[in-house]
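Case study: Glycosyltransferase 2-like domain-containing protein.
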Amino acid sequence: MKTSTDSYNYFAEVDRSLIKEVFRRESRRQNNAPKISVVVATYNRDHLITRALTALVSQNLPKDFFEIIVVNDGSSDKTEEKVKNFIEQNASTLITLITLEKNLGSSFARNAGILSSGGEFIAITDDDCIAPPEWLSQFLSAFETNKECIAVGGWKKPHRDNGAEPSRYDTFMFWRRLPYMKAECKSATMSPFNNCGDTANVCYRKQALLDCSGFNHNLRTFNDWELKIRLHKLGAPLLYRPVFIPHEADFNFRKFVRYWLRVGYDCFLISKIHPTCPVFNTSFKTSLWRALAGTSHIIKALNDEIFQKTISQALFFIFLEININACLWLGKYMIIKNR
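Here is what the predicted structure looks like once written out:
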């Protein structure tokens, strides 16, 4: 395995002076390192973080097999207080809270968690996800069966705690990628059918993350996909498995537009970092072609169950498809302060 894929080391930016506090129950320090470390970056999610942690401590592995590292990315709400209370109430699980001095972004937060981890494997999920009990054990099993792989990942599906239907925005974003997510795929190069890498549901060999220098701090979105490009340069395959983790669905039109404008800006940056990777091309011509291709896909899928209730669903999906590609093109002209 190569020692590096990038001349810049993002881990080097994780200065200890930017870490406000490290909190854990000292009695839970382990003599032996855990097999797998779970890193959760969180920012102003005091209404969701306890649910995410409750799912993680309920994994069907022995308690000394894993640790949980929560990185509080400068939250201004009660996230820090809630995580500390949770740690005190769950003494049987090794949980560490790292609080950053200010909001530095999910990439910085995850890198801080990775550097503090003791596991051979690094599992990453989001603070708005609900990991099923077999989540970690399935990762370990997949690595055991696929020893050549440096990452194993799945995807996320929209979820509402109150049992309500996800918004049409979240439904569209899941449906849009579904044709590429139905089958297992193992590859050592970029492929639309290998969706391994989404930070809601992924596990890496820690050494691979160290070798490719961590997450890019300059990106607020698609930092997982930029990391994936560098992981591929290590020459080892990544494994995608069609396993979906529940993810809190809360998009509305304003959030949808702001998110995709930010993605457009970040894709522009990625295209400059990796000019030979056409996936992140957001030129007007490419965006127009993708909008037409996406619209064609929706029209061809009119017999899908999702469109059976009303034709307005299909028209709305076409509107969102055009909106996404317009945002991808326009995003490079804007700097959006949006997490």
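For the exam, be able to explain this: The chain has two domains: 10-251, 252-339.
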